[in-house]
Amino acid sequence: MALDCSGRPYLYWDVPAAGGPLGTPGFDPQLAEEFWRAVVVGAGLTLHVELRRGRNPHHVVEATFKAMARALHHATRRNGDAVPSTKGRLG
Known about the structure:
- The protein is of the alpha+beta class.
- It contains 2 helices and 3 strands, in the order E-E-H-E-H.
- The longest helix is centred in the last third of the chain and has 20 residues, at 57-76.
């Protein structure tokens, strides 16, 4: 997963759709892409998600949430006085 707090919403999603419930009533794993698209548009993020390994739909979707948390933390943490952006500003 790669994330940029750019103010320019874009989602690249390369996770093969898998059918079947995740154990949570009413949640289809195919909805994960639409969930992340809504997050990206609402927050103005550029997000790239690519499946490298995994077959179990529950674990794959769960991994996207964990990876997003880590990517967001990394993308927004400050290192000294520098702005964490190649463009010199966030958003």
